[in-house]
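Hey L., structure's done. Input below.
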Amino acid sequence: MSQELHRSVLLREAVDALVVDPGGFYIDGTFGRGGHSALILESLDEGGRLLAVDKDPQAIAYANERFAGENRFQIWHGSFADMDQAAAAKAGQVSGILLDLGVSSPQLDQPERGFSFIQDGPLDMRMDTSRGVSAADWVNSESEAELVRVFKEYGEERFARRMAAAIVRRRAEQPFERTLDLAEVVKAANPAWEKGKHPATRVFQAIRIHINGELDDLQQALEKSLALLKPGGRLVVISFHSLEDRMVKRFIREQERGPQLPRGLPVMDSQIHKTLRSIGKAAKAGGAEVGDNVRSRSAVMRVAEKLG
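Output:
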């Protein structure tokens, strides 16, 4: 599989923010097709090490092929929510953790993966095809109320009830098996199309997030990063929709503030245990990158540093 299938967003900006010690130990929590990993390795000296993580068996196979013989690199099959298991021996010694969230271009562009509402394929959407429930199984069996909840919570879809009702009516006649079949039913149930956005976009996003446990995984990864990072280590997160970015922003802000104590308690600010400090402002892809890769237009990168 060609590396050109995937262009890493905010590539140089992310790696420059991440690599503070060329001899350190780093975690790329979402290997994808190795764009960030390759540049991280270029930035490390002979003593540096990189552990990459990915749910996708295709990504694991690609990593083993691309970085065969690179003794500074290791790939681990699983979710970044469990990266503490993969890096157990390095707890408190990690110099940087990178999380490039969402779905990768190869996953979107391969119809057989079932992520696309534009190209027809089996309704799957699992990042890890070796386990879990497919989108088809979930859509065909879940209650209407749960469909509504997922579409509202993870897709921020205002017509969630109409769409869920349309899905339930149709599946009673014939179960959903293909992506375009589901997309057409959702499209027909959407009474107000947004300019420049496919009317099934939010529902497909919601199903994908739910099927893959993306927000739960992100929350776990953020919390676990605190124990993994050493003082001065960096956490770099690239988000692609508001739900992810709000979670990252809130997490960093809470860690900067430290525990919220009752008002009037005689405690000095210097006595409050704070674990992170934000580095710079949220970064977005520039005009040239957006022009070259339209998928970068929604990317937001936030950087924080572990305090001692």
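The first strand starts at residue 25 and ends at 28. The two ends are 42 Å apart (CA to CA).

-- N.
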